[in-house]
Hints:
Elements: H1 2-8, H2 11-15, H3 19-33, H4 38-47, H5 50-54, H6 61-73, H7 75-90, E1 96-100, E2 103-107, H8 113-121, E3 129-131, H9 140-149
Antiparallel strand pairs: 1-2, 2-3
Helix pairs in contact: 3-6
Amino acid sequence: xxxxxxxxxxxxxxxxxxxNALLALWLIMVRLIDQNSRLAAVRLAQNHxxxxxxxxxxxxxxxxxxxxxxxxxxKEKIERQLFKEGISRLAKITSNVxxxxxxxxxxxxxxxxxxxxxxKRVNVTLPExxxxxxxxxxxxxxxxxxxxxx
Length: 150
């Protein structure tokens, strides 16, 4: 179940699939299950089907400490990948303008399951509708052409 959630949230893709990546994933999972030592993480793995689920060979505490070093070395790359995944999911949320007579409202559509989970994790609640405002967004291209006209 935790592996499926990690995959759904893009964590497995951000970490990769090498030995250190899989051990890092195990460290995340074990932190969610029980906040104990690295030795406890090794014992928990031995008592459950971790090797089969994550396709890992036997490992020990030293391997987990080496994985922490690996995580530190790859921290920025992993964070960029997770951010990229989150932004791509949020980009799927769009709005629609509804006009009823002279009144206009902007509807906020229901996000898909992945976006709902992401918004929930960052404590964001989307409103049903927003007031419509005549706001013009100037991109760099539009701004340059506007300046040339003046």
